[in-house]
Design brief:
This protein is mostly helical and 89 residues long. Helix content is 67%, strand content 0%.
Length: 89
């Protein structure tokens, strides 16, 4: 089967296809860039929070080392349980 379309029709179809694929690649590139920016932002937040947590843990460790040991309350003497007296019936 011979192609009956003219050369200009073929060229126009090829140009439309090229434009379609070029636009698709541009969208894909933009989406990938957005994803990479979001990943970088999440990594930065995670790193910041990790540093804050480690600083707090270090401060807590130092405070615990410098704090006096807790004073235990005096133990109360234990009382023996006595058997309950039965009432005469």
């Amino acid at each position: 089967m011979a192609d009956t379309r003219s050369t200009s029709d073929k060229s126009a179809a090829r140009a439309r296809a090229q434009n379609h694929f070029a636009a698709s690649e541009q969208r894909e590139t933009a989406v990938r860039q957005m994803i990479e920016n979001e990943r970088a932002a999440v990594a930065a937040r995670t790193d910041k929070l990790r540093k804050l947590r480690l600083a707090k843990e270090e401060a807590d460790r130092i405070a615990a080392a410098n704090a006096p040991p807790p004073v235990k309350p005096a133990a109360k003497p234990r009382m023996r349980k006595t058997a309950a007296k039965k009432k005469p019936s």
